[in-house]
Amino acid sequence: DTGVSQDPRHKITKRGQNVTFRCDPISEHNRLYWYRQTLGQGPEFLTYFQNEAQLEKSRLLSDRFSAERPKGSFSTLEIQRTEQGDSAMYLCASSLVENTEAFFGQGTRLTVV
Amino acid sequence: GIQVEQSPPDLILQEGANSTLRCNFSDSVNNLQWFHQNPWGQLINLFYIPSGTKQNGRLSATTVATERYSLLYISSSQTTDSGVYFCAHDTDKLIFGTGTRLQVFP
Q1: Interface touch B41/A109, C-beta < 8 Å
Q2: Tens-digit pLDDT profile for residues A28-57
Q3: Which residue among A42, A56, A98 sits closest to B86, beta carbon to beta carbon?
Q4: Which of A74, B36, B73, B79 has a CA 20 to 30 Å removed from the CA of A20?
Q5: Inter-chain residue contact A99 with B96, CB threshold 8 Å
Q6: Contact, A86 vs A110, CB < 8 A?
């Protein structure tokens, strides 16, 4: 069991560029979650998938954000036309099903300059 | 939605001291987890504890679901315990509290 894996660990991009992050969940986990965390705050929920179906999106997820989990395995989170306010740690988590223990990856730290 | 409040927001201890961190939630929950976020940002699972008491080494946790709170006990604290501690409840996704920042000095 390799745990939840996120790539890249760090990303620096210029404002207006598009970025894509990848998350590989624990292999048998059906649920996959994306969170965003800014300095001094707790992680904030963005969206989650049950297998390949995206079941809920937070109001935080503007139309510049899109997430996919095409085959119910890995997931990608894309941010288009990045803004400085998008600078944050993006965390991915997975769990077997609802209401079971969730495990987090190491996160992708995004800096928009 | 359910609100999660953690106290204290900040805690400074000398090595060897004991501490209690509290998590209050505004409605009944199906699941509660405690995490430690290390300086690199990784969230480390401490306890999955919808109810009852669990212990793991110097750490233990108790959740009283009927009274809507959970406690995390850290005994004989070490400098490596420093970081931010989060509780999070799960309805269909984890909702996090604001965290307790712990600093342990030698």
Answers
A1: yes
A2: 999 999 999 999 899 999 999 999 999 999
A3: A42
A4: B36
A5: no
A6: yes
Contact B105, B12 (CB under 8 A): yes
Q: In the structure encoding, which two tokens stand for residue B96, read together?
A: 């996090």
Partners of residue A56 in chain B, C-beta under 8 Å: 92-93
Q: Quick one: closest CA in A to B10, which residue? A: A40
Binary contact (A42, B93; C-beta < 8 A): no
CB B20 within 8 A of CB B70: no
Query: SS3 of B79, please?
Result: helix
Closest CA to A42 of B72, B36, B20, B28: B36
CA distances from B43 to A72, B35, B88 (A): 23, 6, 12
How far are the Cα atoms of A19, A22, A64, A102 from residue A25, in angstroms, in the given order? Answer: 20, 10, 24, 10
CA distance, residue B12 to nearest chain A CA (Å): 17
The 3-state DSSP class for residue B43 equals: strand
Q: Say yes or no for a CB contact (<8 Å) between B99 and A42.
A: yes
* pLDDT one-digit tens code per residue, B72-86: 999 999 999 999 999
Which token pair is A11? 């990303």
Q: B4 pairs with which residues across the strands?
A: B25
